[in-house]
Amino acid sequence: MGDFADYLSSPFVLRAFVALILAAVNAALSGAFASFRNSTFLISGASHAALGGAALVIVLEVNGIVAGVDPLIGAAVFAVVLALLAAHASARGQHADVDVTIGVGFALAMAVAVLLISLVPESASRVWGLLMGDLLLVSSGELMLVSALTLVVALTFFVFRREFLFVTFDMEGAKAFGIRATRYNYVLFALIGLSAAILVKSIGAILVFAMLSAPAATALRIAKSVGTAMWLAFGFALLAGILGILVSYATGFSVSALSAFFAAGAYFVVRAVQWESGPDE
């Protein structure tokens, strides 16, 4: 029991708990709005695009061109750029164009990442570490940066919450009321992309989709209001992460993988329960 208490009180686990809270905040905000808009593919595209940005910063650092720049900054830039391109396609009113833009941007950024890694093979592990992620390896400096970026996301959502809700559920109505709907749509897409980049370090690009979209998707199966859905998304994401940390101690499996597994698994459990109770309940 003492070993378990030492594990929970260790600095790396405490940092992982903080990172989980931040991940849950992003899931409740960006993850929920991506689900409201049926734009969850953006999360996957942005998280993988982030690898290209991170790889670029690492290559520039290795070659002495930049110094002291966290790869997460490059990841955030690439993810937000892809999100803005998707928002531009969305402004044309063609959902298929949005998916194509995200998919092609996803592929291009991954190609850039692989090409850049080939230039500095000795640093490849740093990039692939972002692909897999590890909650227990988040440093204090990285946690501070993630906290700052999450604060930006949270404050922006708070300030523009009414506008975001309007453009999400009634774009044409928002325009009719004189709201600059297209502008807010760009901001909303950018925030979703930024949240995806924020989770890359702790969760890993492969698993960001599960931790951002699955809690919100599960919440939408249960909630009767937007506010309830967002709170439930926060709770599901946080609970999945806590279970991941606890089960990891007993099994030795990756905390990030377990967290994503529980987050995605909860969705199918809820679906199964509702299916037993009757369709579309």
Written account of the structure:
The protein is mainly α. The chain is built from 13 helices and no strands. It has helices at about 1-10, 10-35, 40-60, 70-90, 95-120, 125-130, 140-160, 160-170, 170-175, 180-205, 205-220, 225-250, 255-275. Helix 6 (about 125-130) packs across helix 10 and helix 12 packs across helix 13. It is globular. The mean pLDDT is about 85.
Q: Main β-sheet: number of strands, strand sense, barrel status?
A: none
Residue share in helix: over 70%
Q: Which ranges are low-confidence, i.e. pLDDT below 50, for 5 or more consecutive residues?
A: none
Average residue-wise pLDDT: 87
* Number of E strands: 0
What kind of oligomer do you see? single chain
Number of helices: 13
Using the CA coordinates, give the radius of gyration.
19 Å
Shape: globular
Amount of beta strand: under 5%
Distance separating the two termini: 43 Å
Estimated structural class: mainly alpha
Helix and strand sequence: HHHHHHHHHHHHH
Topology:
Blueprint: H1 2-9, H2 11-36, H3 41-62, H4 71-91, H5 95-119, H6 124-132, H7 140-159, H8 161-169, H9 171-176, H10 181-203, H11 205-222, H12 226-251, H13 255-277
